Amino acid sequence: MPLAENRSFHLFLDDVRHPSEVTWITLPAVPWTIVRDFDAFVAAVHEHGIPATVSFDHDLTAAHYEALDHGRRTPGTGYDESLVKTGYHCARWLVDQCLAHDLPLPEEVFVHTMNPVGRDKIQALLELARNRGR
Known about the structure:
By secondary structure, this protein is of the alpha/beta class. The chain is 31% helix and 25% strand.
């Protein structure tokens, strides 16, 4: 079955948090579908369609964290990104699906990750995809 937009579908990607725990940005009060990894993200989109809203975490497993530094997570570099997929991989897959099926990107996209490098990568990818569609 081909993908389609689903304006009532709101997808939250994070390995541990729930939307109510994200306090550093304002997420809309919508009924979120929570997924914890790349495979669940892909399965949810295949089942429900392109979401109206999506919020991305970047680091989706302990392998993405190198160390704890005074209670703050430090992005890890000691993992193979081809084996351990991040939120960036989910965003890239979603962009590819929208382009392949001639569908718009989600209306609202949030990047709630605490990883500044991961956040910048996801935001740059989404901005490039939006600009390509203009």
